[in-house]
């Protein structure tokens, strides 16, 4: 990999991953719609709107691999999700293929499978169960990744990212927490592993209390350096109350599954 493109570089994860990627690849091209400041050593900065074809063609030009963090990262109206996460991601992949990009790391989310009950162990081979429109767009992105691997020969890693903030605050996020260092390691695995087709892994650190078996990530060489275990006692004794309604508290997606839920909450545990 000579030139790597980081989309969403001005977002919550992007801002922290940008310095973590500094100096790893000869050129890091960072892009977002918001001001990203001056380029650092070995960096190129591009302002771009991922829903504009001309911007897409410009940012993928000369790129070997993409870490695609850009887009909407929470639940939103269908029109916005459709334009940015679904249509925008498809068009980015299409532009990437045309430009000869070989690798993509797709920032999927645990909300692609957020309607699985808490306690059920997932390993990435299960059927999707999105918990909201945002989660549905991540299911689309995983399917898109499979299609571009199968049909166009790109190597793609979909990472179902958990809770990538400084530290976990609830029982749910103790299970899903990932440090920026570990998430960056996973992205590098996606860019650098030889002969990658398409794999789905969980973006989590080495957490003991989790509902995810990250065996595919381990097979690809992932050795997380951080763990939410160091905050377990703090969360047990003084963590914030678990947010969400009855449905959210029953399923892995938590409050994302609560938003706009129209069904019968008593059925969730049974499914
Ligand atoms: C996500 O996908 C979101 O982008 C992030 O903001 C968190 O809320 C996280 O999931 C979560 O599962 O809580």
In short:
With 271 residues, the chain is α/β, with parallel strands linked by helices. It contains 10 helices and 7 strands.
How would you state the average pLDDT, rounded? Answer: 94
Note the total helix count: 10
How many structural domains does the protein architecture include? 1
Indicate the radius of gyration in whole angstroms.
18 Å
- Structural class comes to alpha/beta
Strand content: 5-15%
Q: First CA to last CA: what distance?
A: 44 Å
Q: Ranges with pLDDT <50 over ≥5 residues?
A: 267-271
CATH architecture: 3-Layer(aba) Sandwich
Structure in words:
This protein is α/β, with parallel strands linked by helices. The chain contains 10 helices and 7 strands. The longest helix has 21 residues. The C terminus is likely disordered. Bound molecules: D-galactaro-1,5-lactone. The site of D-galactaro-1,5-lactone has 9 residues, from loops.
